[in-house]
Structures are given as C-alpha cells and as structure tokens.
Amino acid sequence: MYRFLLSRQWVILTLLALVLIPVMVELGFWQLHRHEHRVAQNTLIADNLEAKPVPATDLTSPGHTVPRSDYWRRVTATGTYDTAHEVVVRRRTNADDQVGFHVLTPLVTNDGQVLLVNRGWVPAASDQTAFPKVPAPPKGRVTVVGRLMADETTGESGIKDLKGLPPRQTMLIDSKQQAEELGRKVLGGYVELTSPEPKDGVPEPIGAPDHDSIGPHMAYAVQWWLFTAGVPAGWWILVRRERRDREAAAQTAPSDEDVPAPA
C-alpha cells in the first residue's frame, strides 16, 4: 500500500523532511536566545540608567577594561577640560542619521588623571580633512555626569581604525591610544556626557540607548517552530495524496478482460 515510499523520489523527500525538522527547531531556539539576550540587555540598561551616579574612579582606572555589567552606569567626575588635546571621532551619526563627528574632550581630574568625555555630535565641515567647528566646553573647574562606556574596538564596532588621518581626528574612542597621545594616565573607557547640558544644544547630546524595544525575535522563534510542525504534516498530506492518486490510477487502468484479443 505504501511501497512507493521506497522509491528514490520519496526516500529523498523523506530524508529532506528529517533534516529540516532539527534545523528549524534549532533556528527557533536561536531566535529565542536572541530574545532573551535582548530582554536581559534592556533590563541591564534600565537598571544602570536608574542607578545613583558614582565617582568614575569607583568603576574604572587607568588601563581598566569596562565590563558589560557597567555599561551605561552613570558616573561623575570633577576637573578641568583640556581643549588643547580635544579630538573628534569621524563618521558618527546623530539622531537624524546625519554624518558628522563626536567631540572627545579630556577632563583632567583633581588627582591629575584624565577621563575622556564624549561631549556629543557636531556636523562635519565641507572639507572632511578640516577640523569641525566645535563650541568650547565650560572653563574652569566643572563637575560632569555621564554614562560610562567601554573603549571601542574594531571587533566590537566594525569600524576600521584607519591610519594617516588629519590632525586631531580618530576613528575609535580608545583610552589607551589617548593615553599615549597625552602622556598621562587615562581612565579606561569614556563617558557620554549627560550633564551639564551644552549651551544652545551644541554639541548635540548623545541620546540614551533604547531599552524598550524587544524586537521580533520571539515571533520569529514561534514561526520557525510552526514551520517545524508543518514539515511532518505536509509530508503526511503528500503521502496520502500519492496513495489516493495511485489507487485511482489502478481502478481506472484497463483489466485483462477489457484488452481486445489479437486477431
């Protein structure tokens, strides 16, 4: 009755179905894990943004690698901006996806160490090799509050650390690179400035990271598992249809009695 399943065509179709089932199950779990990662990330961001600000030196030090658990933690520091060693970070976008620069200004703290402060975004000049117009930060002693971030790397950001750039321009925010340039001890990582707010909104402050959206990963996981359930169901429907077609063909085939005898 089902001997046709041993045919080459049906053996291949059955093997294909058996391969698709675990692959789709695994794809579903992959999307589920991405959903769980996004939820955990959102929770981390929300908790760190709501946490009480602490001195930057409580969470980082020269040569320190900021762990992910400390990303977006609000930190404070008091010192004086060193505008003579201010640099801009190329190919950065603002909230409207306009390409420009991030302004990175060293803050020399009371103990002589340096904290890198990303003061925000400014538009690029018409000449990409020219240093953009950057409003000066507050003069004298100032206390800043910002979100702690880790040093940027090519591996994490996908941005190539190009060499031979114009003076005072860089591709990545790297405290170790800046320490070599400044000849000072630079605290690991950097902060995205949130307070005090710049005069007239320039540089344009960097917005807080999104921690509300969870993305479509859970929906994709459910879709893959529905596809998984559909494979054996579809296979069985095809088998039943094949069987009916073969039975119908057998019933309509002429019998030996219907075949005319040779003259």
Would you write up a description of this structure?
It is a single chain. The chain has 2 domains: 3-40 and 216-241; 52-201. Helix content is 35%, strand content 21%. It has 263 residues and is α/β, with parallel strands linked by helices. The longest helix has 43 residues, at 8-50. A 5-stranded mixed barrel has the order 2-4-5-8-6. The protein contains 4 helices and 8 strands; from the N terminus they run αββββββαβαβα. The model has no long low-confidence stretch (mean pLDDT 90). Helix 1 (8-50) packs antiparallel against helix 4 (217-252). The protein is elongated and about 115 Å long. The protein starts with 7 loop residues before the first helix and ends in an 11-residue tail after the last helix. The chain has helices at 8-50, 154-157, 175-182, 217-252; strands at 54-55, 74-81, 87-93, 99-109, 114-123, 141-149, 169-170, 190-195.
Quick tags:
21% strand, 263 residues, 5-stranded mixed beta barrel, alpha/beta, elongated
Shape summary? elongated
Q: What is the number of helical segments per DSSP (H or I, 4+ residues)?
A: 4
Strand content: 15-25%
Helix content: 25-40%
Give the class from helix and strand content and strand pairing.
alpha/beta
> Ends: how far apart?
37 Å
* Count of folded domains: 2
Query: Strand tally, please?
Result: 8
Arithmetic mean of pLDDT: 90
Rg (C-alpha, Å): 32 Å
Low-confidence stretches: none
Helix-strand topology string: HEEEEEEHEHEH
Largest beta sheet: strand ordering: 2-4-5-8-6
Largest sheet: 5 strands, mixed, barrel
